[in-house]
Design brief:
Shape of chain B: globular
Helix content of chain B: over 70%
CATH class of chain B: Mainly Alpha
CATH class of the largest domain in chain A: Alpha Beta
Number of domains of chain A: 2
Distance between the termini of chain B: 14 Å
Number of domains of chain B: 1
Number of helices of chain A: 10
Strand content of chain B: under 5%
Chains: A alpha/beta (289), B mainly alpha (263), C alpha+beta (349)
Shape of chain A: elongated
Largest sheet of chain A: 9 strands, mixed
CATH topology of chain B: MetI-like fold
Order of helices and strands of chain B: HHHHHHHHHHHH
Radius of gyration of chain A: 24 Å
Structural class of chain B: mainly alpha
CATH superfamily of the largest domain in chain A: Periplasmic binding protein-like II
CATH architecture of chain B: Orthogonal Bundle
Order of helices and strands of chain A: HHEHEHEHEEHEHEHEEHH
Largest sheet of chain B: none
Number of strands of chain B: 0
Oligomer: heterotrimer
Chain lengths: 289, 263, 349
């Protein structure tokens, strides 16, 4: 991007115009802007955070830039990493940074003022915590849904075939903590199947459940179908019949006062758009129900 | 012994005051943010009492383990020389600098159900450590014992060993020498080490949640309960429990100074 | 009765010393720093294993490496009073003194009584409850003594007992120590680098240098006929080595002296500095034992001045202080020494 020289550079040396042109000139030019006065600086600063018209398509006329911070549920890790890469390809000026954790933990952080631009939750309940606190810029939109699945050690050595088998005290079952979406899913599954399961641990996000099962510490865990798919080499999945299973909807929203609102809007559009949806489907997510 | 009073140095005093305030403000924050109206009901709820009970039981057990196994190790490191001593000291104090979660993962790989030691143990006795109180104690001991070893080793090194010679020359057998000379002389570092260990065990989180898991009433210690509360937005509960932990720790810290004969 | 043959191999030193001490006797072990005196005591008490030799006390073999016998320190009826006292800082004075008794099984009350008695004998009344840290050097020394004595050891070892005291305290404590040692029924070994201690307190003396015994005898014998430079320096006399042929002594380091009495064979010669007269000019006449040398040092010793000079042989003479000016000794230069043959004491090495 070429900068307009406002006046002759006062701090740069004249040779910067010839050798290594770009950075030398940009530095001199920047210094010239700085030297132009505080008012000019203030104007420049204001203009970078002003709202520009957001286009719904994946390419916008105004170039997006800066860093985009996305808080996303652990279960979205692989899918969003890919979406982030594709988004960056389409908008090279934007660096996307993800913070993956249990949705309840992320919601709490956001309500305490964490500098996120976008929040993608694994359940409406956790998004509601954010909107109730007035921290969503607008109405959240559902962009995917997910279902539960039993994850067991590779090869299913304990021959687990149904949810009711998990009630057996000899089977070490790990689930997410109740306030985390996958924990709520587990609770609902056990209720639907009418079994009482005593888990040996309540993990703070679904990644913890996956770890315990793949390491062989737990015999079985309730995770999402997407997790089973992502860990196909390390574990085996036992599908849950539809009448016992629970589905969770994934809402996404821009955070109020987001530092990079432009990129936030574009990212959400990307996720909801065909490219984003394709990626999600490839990882095993179901379309918004 | 009377010593000349230190002249007042404003720069020193200023920096020290800043340092002190750095620690005071968070405590003030805890006290002012606490749900004083609901304190009793929060603290006496089943999950809180469970967490407190587990914390105290596990941290005390870890401290006892540190005493039993850490003292001989400290003695070995301070009093003997053997090939690879530096490596042994490095390895046994490594948990002090490792992030606790790393410790937890390493513990799983060693003592978990499929671990190097854990697997034979499971096959031979059916005993597994993760998801049990024993697992919590293992995790806490792992991160806390190095503090004990380091402190006691230092105490053993800095005592005048010739006093033990004197005792022996007066006819005292080795156990008497230890009981009447060595032990009293290293008592301050022993006390400090014990308290440090206990405090570290009490506050342990990362290794515990990774190795032992998180289950209320079984493995959910205070730090875990506080974390769960905090991450679910139940800040009242989190702050209340945090205050309890702070008070318990403060009491022991103060008690420790008197125990070790400090000023 | 102690029969000791101490052979040690240490990093700095090889020690080889054999001696006996009768019950009630005080043997003074004298020697320069690093000679192995303190090491000898540590070996006797059992804190250093022997490489060879034997230690027998009152008929009991305490150590015999060849036969793999080693009684540990706690099993030996030996008390060692350390040079730095090593009082237990966390115990009171009376607890310190009673330590040895209680370690051997005496009950607390009896031990305490005996300890207080011994402390009273050494002038430590009323200091029972005080901690070592609050006591003066002299008091600490006496507590250390009491602690070593109260167990009625068969062998009492004292490592430089007066070294850490100032001059005035030293005199008092030396007197006290004399009393204590005189009444002691144990064999006593006293290590010191101070000749005065050895002379005042010792019945016999052993001089150790470089890990070996170079001279034994009564203090009088040793000081009258020093057999090493170290003792000669301590005593403050000139010591020369040579070979005698009648009344001529050929000195090992060059030069010769005419003797008052004839002698034959290897010999040591002692000359008191006071018997060496110095002058700037060559003395008149043909007096024997007159030779020149360069001034090496001039030392003021109270009311006398010692003049050390090079020459064949090197010698130390003595002059009154006035002579320093008269002879302009400060400016160095050449001097002439003269010794009367009658003032030379000769004895076999």
């Amino acid at each position: 991007m070429r900068e307009k020289r406002l006046e002759r550079p006062r701090f740069g040396t004249s040779r910067s115009a010839t050798v290594g042109g770009g950075s030398g000139r940009r530095r001199a030019g920047f210094l010239a802007v700085a030297g132009a006065g505080a008012v000019a600086l203030a104007l420049a600063a204001c203009s970078s955070s002003g709202t520009t018209s957001s286009s719904g398509g994946s390419s916008s006329s105004a170039k997006l830039s800066g860093t985009l911070v996305v808080f996303a549920a652990t279960s979205l890790t692989d899918a969003f990493d890919k979406i982030g890469a594709e988004f960056h390809q389409a908008n090279p000026g934007v660096t996307v940074k993800f913070n993956y954790n249990g949705s309840s933990s992320l919601a709490t952080s956001i309500n305490q003022g964490a500098p996120a631009d976008v929040f993608a939750s694994a359940a409406p309940a956790n998004m509601k915590t954010v909107t109730d606190a007035g921290n969503a810029a607008d109405t959240p939109k559902t962009f995917a849904s997910n279902q539960g699945e039993i994850m067991v050690e590779k090869g299913n050595p304990d021959h687990i075939t149904s949810v009711s088998q998990l009630a057996n005290p000899a089977v070490k079952v790990v689930v997410c903590a109740p306030e985390v979406p996958c924990g709520a899913v587990a609770t609902a599954i056990f209720k639907n199947a009418d079994v009482t399961v005593k888990p040996v641990s309540q993990e703070t996000n679904v990644g913890g459940v996956v770890t315990k099962v793949t390491l062989g510490e737990a015999d079985a865990g309730i995770v999402y179908v997407t997790d089973v798919k992502a860990n196909a080499s390390k574990a085996t999945g036992v599908p849950i019949p539809a009448n016992e299973n629970d589905t969770t909807e994934y809402p996404i929203a821009e955070i109020k006062g987001a530092p990079n609102a432009n990129a936030a809007t574009a990212f959400i559009s990307f996720v909801l758009g065909s490219q984003g949806q394709q990626v999600l489907a490839s990882f095993g997510f179901m379309p918004p129900g | 012994m009377d010593q000349e009073k230190q002249p007042f140095n404003p720069l020193l005093a200023g920096l020290a005051a800043l340092a002190a305030l750095f620690f005071v403000f968070p405590m003030i924050g805890l006290v002012t943010g606490a749900p004083w109206g609901r304190m009793t009901s929060v603290i006496t709820s089943k999950s809180s009492l469970d967490a407190l009970g587990l914390s105290i039981a596990a941290s005390l057990a870890s401290t006892v383990i540190a005493l039993l196994f850490g003292f001989p190790l400290a003695w070995l490191l301070a009093r003997t020389s053997f090939r690879g001593k530096g490596v042994v000291r490095g390895l046994t104090t490594l948990p002090m600098v490792l992030p606790p979660v790393v410790g937890g993962i390493a513990l799983l790989l060693a003592y978990g159900r499929r671990g190097i030691i854990g697997e034979p143990l499971d096959k031979a006795t059916g005993i597994t450590l993760p998801f049990t109180l024993a697992g919590v104690i293992v995790a806490e001991s792992f991160v806390a014992m190095p503090f004990f070893v380091i402190t006691v080793e230092s105490g053993l090194r800095s005592m005048n060993r010739r006093l033990e010679d004197a005792a022996r020359s007066l006819g005292a057998r080795r156990w008497t020498v230890f009981r009447r000379v060595t032990l009293p002389l290293i008592w301050p570092s022993l006390a400090a080490g014990t308290v440090l260990t206990w405090a570290r065990a009490l506050g342990e989180f990362g290794a515990t949640i990774t190795f032992a898991g998180n289950l209320p009433g079984v493995t959910q210690t205070m730090p875990l309960a506080i974390y769960i509360s905090q991450s679910s937005g139940r800040m009242d509960e989190a702050i209340a429990l945090s205050l309890v932990l702070v008070v318990v720790s403060l009491v022991v810290m103060i008690f420790r100074r008197r125990l070790a004969g400090g000023d | 009765m102690l029969d000791a043959d101490i052979q040690l191999r240490l990093s700095r030193l090889n020690l080889d010393a054999a001696f006996t001490v009768a019950s009630g006797e005080v043997l003074a072990l004298l020697g320069p720093n690093g000679s192995g005196k303190s090491t000898t005591l540590r070996a006797l008490v059992g804190l250093l294993p022997l490489a060879g030799g034997r230690v027998v006390l009152d008929g009991t073999v305490l150590e015999d490496p060849a036969r793999k016998v080693k009684v540990p320190p706690e099993g030996r009826p030996i008390s060692l009073m350390f040079q730095d006292y090593l009082l237990f800082p966390h115990l009171s004075a009376v607890e310190n003194v009673a330590f040895g008794l209680r370690a051997k099984g005496t009950d607390k009350k009896t031990a305490r009584e005996k300890a207080l008695q011994t402390m009273a004998r050494l002038g430590l009344d009323g200091l029972g409850e005080a901690k070592p840290g609050s006591m003066s050097g002299g008091q600490q020394q006496r507590v250390a003594m009491a602690r070593a004595l109260v167990t009625d050891p068969k062998l009492l070892l004292l490592d430089e007992p007066l070294a850490a005291l100032d001059v005035s305290t030293k005199t008092d404590v030396r007197r006290l120590l004399r009393e204590v040692l005189r009444r002691s029924e144990a064999a006593n070994v006293l290590v010191t680098h101070d000749l005065l201690d050895a002379v005042a307190l010792g019945d016999r003396m052993v001089v150790i240098e470089d890990g070996g015994i170079v001279q034994t005898g009564t203090p009088a014998e040793v000081t009258a006929q020093p057999r090493s430079r170290y003792v000669a320096d301590l005593v403050g006399v000139n010591l020369l080595r040579g070979t005698a042929q009648g009344t001529v002594l050929e000195l090992d380091d060059g030069g010769q002296l005419v003797l008052g009495q004839p002698a034959t064979g290897p010999a040591l010669a002692v000359v008191a500095p006071a018997a060496v007269s110095v002058s700037r000019q060559r003395p008149e006449g043909q007096a024997p034992n007159t030779w020149p040398g360069q001034i090496r040092a001039v030392d003021l010793m109270g009311d006398r001045v010692r003049v050390r000079m090079e020459g064949k042989p090197a010698i130390t003479g003595e002059v009154p202080p006035a002579a320093v000016d008269e002879l302009k000794l400060d400016s160095g230069g050449e001097l002439w020494a003269h010794v009367d043959p009658a003032a030379i004491t000769v004895y076999p090495p």
